[in-house]
Every structure is written in C-alpha cells, then in structure tokens.
Write a structure and sequence with these properties.
Elements (H helix, E strand, L loop, with lengths): L2 H25 L4 H11 L3 H14 L5 H4 L29 H22 L3 H20 L26 E2 L6 H11 L2 H8 L14 H22 L4 E2 L2 H9 L11 H23 L8 H6 L1 E9 L2 E9 L2 E4 L6 H9 E3 L15 E8 L3 E7 L1 E4 L4 E4 L9 E3 L8 H29 L10 H12 L31 H4 L49 H37 L11 E12 L4 E9 L4 E6 L2 E4 L2 H8 L6 E10 L26 H45 L33 H19 L6 H21 L13 H7 L4 H12 L8 H16 L7 H29 L3 H19 L9 H25 L2 H23 L4 H15 L8 H15 L19 H13 L10
Parallel strand pairs: 1-2, 5-8
Antiparallel strand pairs: 3-4, 3-7, 6-7, 8-16, 9-10, 11-12, 12-13, 12-16, 13-14, 14-15
Family: Belongs to the peptidase C19 family.
Protein name: Ubiquitin carboxyl-terminal hydrolase 25
Enzyme class: hydrolase
C-alpha cells in the first residue's frame, strides 16, 4: 500500500467515525452496532439514518439482537465503545411534528457534512475548538477582572518562584483544568516526555498534503515541546500553557463555550500526536511499515469471540482508552468482567450449532504499555433531558493483574469464571438463609432470632411487681367519688406484699351512696390520677417454677442452636468470599502486572466541575496531587477519599495504569559518557535548552526589578521616617501626652511605637501615666532609706514589672486578655529577650509627660539619661523594633477580630467577612512565630467559616427567588466575596473548612437537576465553573478595611464585651 493509499484509508475510517459521532449526538443512541446498521441501510445518508433510528424506536422498542451482536469490521476506528453497558433505547425525537423535526435534522447534518468536506474538520473537533476558544477568551478576560477575583498572578515574583526539585504546575487559563490533569499525567510518563522533547518535524514539510489538519499538528507539537521543556527546567512555580491552547484554538473556528471532557480531550490529543509522529515515521521508514511510537505506547488489541444464532465468529480489534461502566459495580474487576462479556455466552462453550442464544466475549491479545480506563460516570437522564453524574463508590487497586483477561488464558479463565459463578450461587443461598436468622419475623419490623429468644427468656424470668397494674388504683374510694370502685377488694394474701398502697394514699371514710345513684366507671386513660406502682418492666402474671424451668431450658437450647447456625453460615460465607478473592491469586495468573500511575479526578456535576490528578512518583515512592498551579505531596489515603466516590461529589474519571515489567516507561535518562542521571536543563535538546534559558532569564530579571523596587521603597520610607522624627523632635514641648515617652535625641530615627500614640491625652496616655506614677509612689513608700532618683527608678521599674508579671501568669478567660493592656505582658508571654523588656520599661519611665511633680520629673530625667548611655551593641534596635511591630500587628489583628465578631453578631455578614478574613490571615502569620503571639485560630476560623456559609446561604436564597435583581445580587455576593475566599479555606486543608467548601458547592450543584428559566440556567452555567474551579493559590484580593483608632481602655472593654457575648467557643467545629 502506498503512502497516499494509507492516508486515504485513514481519512475514510475517520470520516466513518465522524458520521457515527454525529448520529450518536443527534439521536442519543450509544450502541455502535446499531448506528453502523443505520448508516449501512441509508448508504451514508445521515438524514435517512436518523429517520431509520426514530422509526425503529417507535415501532420496535427492543433492539434487534442479531444486529446488536454483529461485530465491527477490521479497520474500524479504534475509538469504539468496547463492552459498553449503556442503555440501548433510542431517545424519541419524533414528537408531534415528525417531518419538520427530521427536515431540521437533515439540514443540520448536511451543513456539518459540507463543513467537513470543505475544511477537513469534524464536528467532534469543532466541539474541542469551542472549549479551547472559550479558554483563551477566559484567559484574556482575566486581565480585565477587578482585584476582587482570584485569577491574576501574584505581583511578587518570589511567590511564583519554584522550590528546588518541586514539580512545575500549570496555570488554569479558564476552564482548562482538564488540560492540566491530562498533560501532567502524560508528562510524568518519562518515556512519553522523552518522545515529545526529542521530536523533530519532518524535513520535507512542504510535500505533505496541504490540509488544515496536517498543518495544525507541527505547530502544536512545537508548542507542546516548549511547554514540556518549561515543566522540566523552568524557575517558575507554574507555567502558562496558553500558547499550546492557542494553537489548538486557531485550528478551529467557533464561538460557543463549554467545559471539556477529559476522555474526549485525551482521545483527540493522542490522535493529534499520532498524526504528528506518523508523518515523521513515514519519512524515516526504509521499505518497511513505519512504527508509530504513540500507537505502540497507548494502543492495544483484543479478540472479539462470539456466537450469533448458533454461528461462531472471531474478530480482532484495536483499542485506545478502554471504556468501563461504573453503575452497578463495586470494584474495577467487576467492571472489567462485565465489559468482557456481553449477552448469553453458554453456547460459546458448546458445540451446538443450532443454539438460538447469542453473545460475545472480549480477550486481550496485546495490552499497551500504558493502559487507560475511562470510567463512565455520566449518564443521560432522558426524563430531564440532561446528563447526570454517577457518584457511586468504585474501588480500584494500586496493582492490577490483567492475566484473567488475556486471550492466552482464555480456557483457564472460563473454568475459573464458571467456578466463581457456582460459588456466587451458593453464596446467594447462604446469604438468604442467614438473612432469615438476622431479620426474623413476619411484620414490618424484624429482629435477629437470637435476640428474640433472649428477650423471651428475659421476659419469662422477670419477677412480677404486682398481679395487675390496674390494682394500684385506689379501690377503696366511694362510688360517689371521682374514681369510684373499680374491682372488688382483694385479700392481703392475693395482693402480696408488693401490692400494698403506699403510705398516705389510704382512703378516707365517706358517706355511703344511695341505692339510686349510678356507679361511675373508672377510665384509666382519661383520669388525671396515675397509678402509683406501675411495673418497671413487663413480666408474666402467673408462671410456676416448673413452667419457668422448662421454658428457660428450651429457650437456652434454641438460642444456642440459632447462634451456632448463624456462626456456621457466616463462616461459610466468609470462606466463599475468600475463595473468590483468591481465585486468581496463583502465580500463573499474576504474570501481567500493571501499576497505577495516575488517577484523574472530577469534582462536581455533569454540567460543571473541576479536574485534578494524583500521580505516583516512583523515585520518591509517594503520591503527588497536581491541581493546576498547585503541586503538593499526597498519600494513598487522600487519593482513596477523593477518587473512589460515594463520599463527596469527587470521584475518579480516568485511571492510567502502566506495565510494571516495562521500567523504561518511568526510568530517568543517563548520560552515555559519564553515567550520571540527567536532570533539569541537561535533559533537553539544544533548541529547547536555549528556549528555557531565555525564559528563566526573563524571570530572573523580573525578580531583580522587583527587589530593586522594594529596596527603593524601603529607602524612601526610611528617609520619610527620619524626616518625621526630626520634625517631631523640634516640637516636643507642643506634643500631647502619649502612652510611651518620646525617645532621647541619641536614638536617631527610631520612632515611638504607633500603638502607644493615641490621640487623646486624657484617655490612653493618662491611663499609662497613672500606672507609672503609681509604681513610683509605691516604690517611694517601700524605699525609706534609698530616696535618690536613680534608686527610685530601679525600685519603680521592679514594682511595675512585678505587677505586669502577675498579669502574665494569671490564667484568664478569653474576654480578659491582659496582653492588650500592656506590651510587657505580651513580651513576657512570648519570652522576649531581657534587653527588650528593660528598654521598653525605661521608655515608659522616660516619658516627658511624667512632669507632674519634681520626683517624677527627676526619675524621667534619670531614665532618659540611662537610655542615652545604652550602646548600640547592647540592644539590637532592629530586634527591638521587630518585637514592637509584632505587638502592633497583634493589636491590629485584635481590632479586625473584634469588629468582625460584632458585625457577625449583628448579622451584617457582608461587612463582617473582610474583617474576619484578615484577622484570620494576620493571626496565622503571628502564630507562626509562637503560640501566644496571636489569638485562638480555631475560634477565628470558625466564625470566618460560618460567615462564608451564611453568605452562601443568603446568596442561594436570592438565586432561588428567580427575581432578576435578587439573582444578580446573590451571584455578585458569590463572585466578589465567597468565591475569592474559597482558596483561603482550601490552602490549609483542614477537615472543617473542606466540609464547608463541600457544603457550599453542593448547594449550587443541586440546582443542576432542577427546572428553571433559561436565563437562570445560563447564569448558573457561567457561575459554577468559578465556584468549582478554584485553586489553592491566593493571587489577589480585597484591600483590608481601614481600622479606626482605639485607646487601650476602649479596646480592652469592647473586645472583652464581644468575647463574653459569644454563644459558644467551638471546640469541635461545625
């Protein structure tokens, strides 16, 4: 076959697959054989094929079995639906006006066919184009977004700098998390990585067919090489794949947008890569059939063995991704078993040629080194007319042995399957018998039989409290009383000692009734008086010792028999389960091992969601989580939680296994001369090495410019600070009193701590001045002998320090935080150096405002003189300023928290959010330095989380109202407040925050299955990707609110009040 014939054959095959895809999309029919029959009957006319399927659905609801089991011909497109379990019913499109509908469909299909003939582009590829174009548009639109959104890069390049040996992430350029998940999974296949990096385009490009598709592959391959090279050697934490996406977008023309499906994208990606490598392979061949490395890496073959009305057939077919149904199965092996067998296969094992039964089996003849399973977690709800996601749990192993599905093990597997079938029949019978023991009874409520017998034995052996509960009622009351005489009085012997009336309840003598008076009837359920001695538990009224002995013996024996039977049944069931589990565990059936390489996870619903990948690093022997720009260490436990399904809206959508006996797939490359392992830029060919070096140079330049800018800003701030200090020194006598004295002239540019500078000299400053003067007075009273200013200063400092130390050592409630009252308490809590404490106290006593009397004035002068004598090497002023800056940050964080909690209690959630967000962020920064640097982060985190949940609830309520202003207001709250905050909840990966995010997402995802106006559906579709597609990278945000100034007394009072009024301090979260 010539090259031209080969190209034409491939084109014909893909055109046939295009027609099948169009027909599947229009009619909703998922069965490949039925679609092929429709095309054969209509001779390729799509309009007639649609009419054939719609008429078939109306006249013959059940599909023709002979057609269903007719296998495809050799050479059909490899993207066949292998072993599909999908519903074969055809969606009824006839409606009331069948002719008009069919004409519209025919026109649409004719237009699609004409577009394919003119451009060589299929509808499936145009669908890919739509999402790619939407991704690029989203990326461009992100440049115009306000600072309230989270999609822009951090302006600080140090935040975007790659950690040493850390994998590189991929930026989500707008609904492209599917691109990131697939590309990362393939990139971490080192053999695939090498193939892409060392790809060289054909030398005779001009001789290739001038088809738009052909010219697309080479530019795309070059951009993919560039992207891979940056992922290998970039200094950036993450790289932008926009240029690769742009190449794909430019290959197609459309204007619609949707979020792309991972499996569909992987299909097309491998198809494009195969085309690109096929060009090169055909150029390099020397008289023999060219080998395409993409085909050898990702494609395998299976044998279809079947019986059609007694006639056997066999056919070999090629496959890429292998589709598996999830619904109805508990693990991967069950899915595979169901996919490998279709129909009734008993006749496959017999020689009867006249059997009417039909069925087929699939046996793998050749497995690809990279085996990919596509888990079908979406199904079309015909009643609602929309796809829905399947959230069922599906387990899969980290090591998968494929021996039982290989053609060479066909006979032994059939024997084992038959044995398993027989065991499962026994298992069903045993489970039914066990169920009769565990759910005994004939009514709606059933109980274990052993418990029933135990209850009966307990009842029989119970001692009666009295003969009848009703006899506890006062039977001596006169007939004319309110209760009357119910029963004749019993003798003492009959009543027994336990039936005597309690003291104080004996009847009082009353007048005898007349003979005409009617005796009232006692109604125990309507009278207000209750019997005084109701039995504590039911008990038999009359039972003899002999009866009790016989009954207890029988019940004991029966209960033991039941327990033994139950135990035997449970043991038999466990043994059968174990036998089934070990059926394929012998060494002969463990020769084809495939190790789990990557799991692609989808979170959300069918209409919207977010993708990420778990990829195994064999060299570090750990799992890594690739979530767009975020690449973090993970674990098998986290993978199981997010991938198996059934727990949240997250579940595995694609499983990638690699042949464990082919280590070249993940082996590193070594230098042929030195034997050293290649890493970084050494892995790249010369052209890509130069490309990465150029990009790294640009990033280095960006960092250098940023550092220069920050240094210039710091210098300007230092000069401005020095100027402000000098100006303050010239007007010292005109300054109001402050809580800390102005520094001596020798202190240079250092400034008083801002938290000490309160505007009112009669409030905060006066309070601190009174504390200082009180310490001086107490010291003077204690120092009767030493009254020199220097001695008094030393004694006063000691008095003040002792007072503050006592505060620091007290165990107080959150509303009584002494750290807010004085900086020294904060310093003591956090073990500040002694020199810092001494200088801070000296500054307090050196305040110029201490001039009330001559004693205070003399002490102030001594304190200032001591400050002048302190040498620079004795006290590190940078460290001193750092401690005071931490205290300023602590007070600022307290104000954020206080205002946030006050607003939260007033239900002003929109206003409260930013205060709580920033209090949490600043508080975490403080707690990094020490446990007592900040406040209780669980408390702040609780109210931050609750505030977001309240806002989400309010916004959802506005959306549910359906009113346009309310809907817009609700979505505005979500877009501007809630969505930008979600990464803040995800970044630390705490269980309570993750559950809160899940609650918020579930609330909005629940609307997908509800009927609503088209405009609401459009707004929801536009909004959901933003809610679900949030990474943990914090890029830009609201500016913090401007804080008012509070004196120490006011801050302490208000903070104490709001903390005392909290309904609860969360110890266990929501």
């Amino acid at each position: 076959m010539t090259v031209e014939q080969n190209v034409l054959q491939q084109h014909s095959q893909k055109h046939q697959q295009t027609l099948l895809n169009q027909l599947r999309e229009v009619t909703g029919t998922t069965d490949v054989q039925l679609l092929q029959q429709a095309l054969q009957v209509s001779n390729g006319d799509l309009a007639e094929a649609v009419a054939f399927l719609t008429e078939k659905n109306a006249k013959v609801p059940q599909q023709d079995e002979a057609t269903y089991y007719q296998t495809t011909q050799v050479g059909n497109d490899r993207y066949i639906s292998v072993g599909s379990q999908a519903d074969t019913n055809v969606i009824d499109l006839t409606g009331d006006d069948k002719d008009d509908l069919q004409r519209a469909i025919a026109l649409s299909l004719e237009e699609s066919s004409r577009a394919f003939r003119e451009t060589g582009i299929t509808d499936e590829e145009q669908a890919i184009s739509r999402v790619l174009e939407a991704s690029i548009a989203e990326n461009k639109a992100s440049l115009k977004r306000t600072h309230t959104e989270v999609w822009s890069d951090s302006p600080n390049p140090h935040d975007r700098k790659r950690m040493e040996n850390c994998p590189v992430g991929l930026k989500n350029v707008g609904n492209t998390c599917w691109f990131s998940a697939v590309i990362q999974s393939l990139f971490n296949l080192l053999e695939f990585q090498r193939l892409v990096l060392h790809y060289s385009p054909p030398a005779r490009v001009q001789d290739l067919p001038r088809n738009q598709k052909e010219h697309r592959n080479l530019p795309f391959m070059q951009e993919l090489r560039n992207l891979f090279s940056l992922m290998v050697g970039s200094k950036r934490k993450y790289v932008d794949p926009s240029r690769a996406v742009e190449i794909l977008k430019d290959a197609f023309k459309s204007s619609e947008s949707q979020q792309q499906d991972v499996s569909e994208f992987t299909h097309k990606l491998l198809d494009w890569l195969e085309d690109a490598f096929q060009m090169k392979a055909e150029e390099d061949r020397e008289g023999e059939k060219p080998k395409n490395p993409m085909v050898e890496l990702f494609y395998g073959r299976f044998q279809a063995v079947g019986v059609l009305e007694g006639k056997k057939f066999e056919n070999t077919e090629m496959f890429g991704q292998y589709p598996l149904q999830v619904n109805g199965f508990k693990d991967l092996h069950e899915c595979l078993e169901a996919a490998m067998i279709e129909g009734e296969i008993e006749s496959l094992h017999s020689s009867a040629e006249n059997s009417a039964k039909s069925g087929q089996e699939h046996w793998f003849t050749e497995l690809p080194p990279v085996l990919t399973f596509e888990l079908s977690r979406f199904e079309f709800n015909q009643a609602l007319g929309r796809p829905e996601k399947i959230h069922n749990k599906l387990e899969f192993p980290s090591m998968l042995y494929m021996d039982r599905y290989m053609d060479r093990n066909r006979e032994i597997t059939r024997i084992k399957r038959e044995e398993i079938r027989r065991l499962k029949e026994q298992l069903t019978l045993l489970q039914q018998r066990l169920e009769r023991y565990l759910s005994y009874g004939s009514g709606p409520k059933r109980f274990p039989l052993a418990d029933v017998l135990q209850y009966a034995m307990e009842f029989a052996s119970s001692k009666p409290v009295c003969t009848s509960p009703l006899e506890d009622i006062d039977t001596s009351a006169p007939p004319g009383g309110t209760t009357g005489q119910l029963l004749p009085a019993l003798s003492t012997a009959e009543q027994g000692p336990s039936c005597t009336l309690p003291e104080g309840l004996s009847p009082a003598p009353t007048q005898a009734p007349s003979t005409q008076q009617r005796v009232p009837i006692h109604k125990p359920f309507t009278h207000s008086r209750l019997p005084p001695d109701l039995p504590m538990h039911p008990a038999p009224r009359h039972i003899t010792e002999e009866e009790l002995r016989v009954l207890e013996g029988c019940l004991h024996r029966w209960r033991s028999e039941v327990e033994n039977d139950t135990h035997d049944l449970q043991g038999s069931i466990s043994r059968i389960h174990r036998t089934i589990e070990l059926m394929y565990s012998d060494k002969s059936m463990m020769q084809v091992p495939f190790r789990l390489h990557a799991v692609l996870v989808h979170e959300g619903q069918a209409n919207a969601g977010h993708y990420w990948a778990y990829i195994y690093d064999p060299h570090q022997q750990r799992w890594m989580k690739y979530n767009d720009i975020s690449v973090t260490k993970s674990s098998w436990e986290e993978l199981v939680r997010d991938s198996f399904g059934g727990y949240r809206n997250a579940s595995a959508y694609c499983l990638m296994y690699i042949n464990d006996k082919k280590p070249f797939l993940i082996e590193e490359e070594f230098d042929k001369e030195t034997g050293q392992m290649l890493s970084g830029l050494d892995k790249l060919p010369s052209d890509l090495k130069a490309y990465v070096k150029e990009d790294n140079g640009l990033f280095d330049k960006e960092i250098e410019e940023w550092d220069t800018l920050q240094a210039r800003k710091a210098q300007q701030e230092k000069l401005a600070l020095a100027a402000a200090t000098a100006a303050a020194e010239t007007t010292t006598s005109h300054q109001p009193m402050s809580t800390e004295p102005s520094p001596p002239d020798s202190w240079g540019p250092q400034q008083d701590p801002e938290y000490m500078e309160q505007p009112s000299p009669t409030d905060d400053s006066k309070h601190l001045q009174e504390d200082t003067e009180r310490a001086i007075s107490k010291a003077a009273a204690e120092q009767q002998e030493e009254r020199s200013p220097e001695g008094l200063l030393t004694a006063a400092i000691k008095v003040e320090y002792t007072r503050l130390l006592r505060f620091a050592q007290e165990d107080t409630a959150p509303e009584n935080d002494y750290r807010l009252q004085h900086v020294i308490v904060y310093f003591i809590h956090n073990q500040a150096p002694k020199k810092i404490l001494e200088r801070t106290l000296l500054m307090q006593f050196a305040d110029r405002n201490l001039s009330f009397d001559e004693r205070c004035k003399s002490i102030m002068k001594v304190a200032r003189g001591k400050l002048d004598l302190v040498k620079p090497e004795e006290v590190n002023m940078e460290e001193y300023e750092m401690w005071h800056q931490d205290y300023r940050n602590f007070r600022e964080t307290t104000i954020f928290l206080m205002i946030g909690l006050e607003l939260f209690q007033k239900k002003c959630f929109v206003e409260a959010l930013m205060y709580l967000i920033y209090s949490y962020q600043y508080n975490r920064e403080l707690l990094v330095k020490g446990l007592y640097r900040g406040h209780n982060d669980e408390l702040i985190g609780h109210y931050r989380r609750e505030c977001l949940l309240k806002l989400n609830e309010n916004a959802a309520g506005m959306f549910e109202s359906g009113e346009e202003p309310e809907v817009c207001n609700g979505l505005s709250i979500m877009n501007e407040l809630v969505v930008p905050c979600i990464p803040l909840l995800l970044v630390h990966d705490t269980e309570k925050d993750l559950l809160a995010v899940e609650d918020m997402r579930n609330r909005w995802c629940s609307y997908l299955g509800q009927e609503m106006e088209p405009n609401l559906q459009e707004k929801l579709t536009d909004f959901l990707p933003k809610l679900l597609d949030c990474s943990t990278e914090i890029k830009s945000f609201h500016d913090p609110p401007k804080l008012p100034t509070y004196s120490t007394l006011e801050l302490v009072e208000r903070y104490g009040r709001v903390m005392a009024s909290l309904s609860r301090v969360p110890a266990d979260g929501r």
